Structure formats: C-alpha cells, structure tokens
Amino acid sequence: MPQFKPHAAISWFFLGFFMLFVWLAYIQGKQAAKSENLNNFTRLVIGLIGLKLFLAILIIAVYKEMMQPQDNNFAYIFFILYAVYSIFEFSILSRIGKTGK
C-alpha cells in the first residue's frame, strides 16, 4: 500500500517496541506469578497497561512533532499493532496468571 510507504521506518520501530514490551511483560509476569503476594501479578498487569498506553501516546506525539508527517496514516499502523500486541500480551499474561508458571 503506497500510502503507508513513507511511514515504513516508524512502523518497524513500532513493531520492535511492541515485541520488546511483550517480552519484558512475559519476564515480569513470570516473576510476579511466583510471588507469595497474590496481588503482585494483578498490580503488574494494570501497571503494564498504563505504561504501554502512556508510552504509546508519547511515541505518537514525539513522532508527530519531530517528523511532521503529511498525513496520519502512521497512526493506523500504530493502532493495528497496538491492538494485536495487546491481545497477544493479554493471552500470555492470562496463561501465566492461571498456571503461575
């Protein structure tokens, strides 16, 4: 799709960001699930949701301010990746929360 071509570099950055975030969530989730305090896992999940949302808004704002793109097509790419990785992250963390492993 040619309308997204100008945003290829930031799209790869978004992909890397979400992959790194899910990997870190997985590592932290495994540690929190083994904790004796059962609330640690819940706090971690809520904290990760808030952190990811904050970082998402920050990334979009910085990119828009620095690069001043001609259109907002980069936001479509971002929100598609955001949704996909949020679902992926939720499924991983819910599996960890159920099994504790």
Topology:
Layout: H1 8-33, H2 39-67, H3 73-99
Helix pairs in contact: 1-2, 1-3, 2-3
Number of domains: 1
Largest sheet: none
State mean pLDDT (0 to 100 scale).
90
The value of Rg in angstroms is 16 Å
Helix content: over 70%
Number of strands: 0
Provide a descriptive summary of the structure in words.
By secondary structure, this protein is mainly α. The protein has one domain. 81% of the residues lie in helices and 0% in strands. Helix 2 (39-67) packs antiparallel against helix 3 (73-99). The longest helix is centred in the middle third of the chain and has 29 residues, at 39-67. The mean pLDDT is 90.
Gist of the model:
Helix 1 runs antiparallel to helix 2.
Index terms:
101 residues, mainly alpha, 0% strand
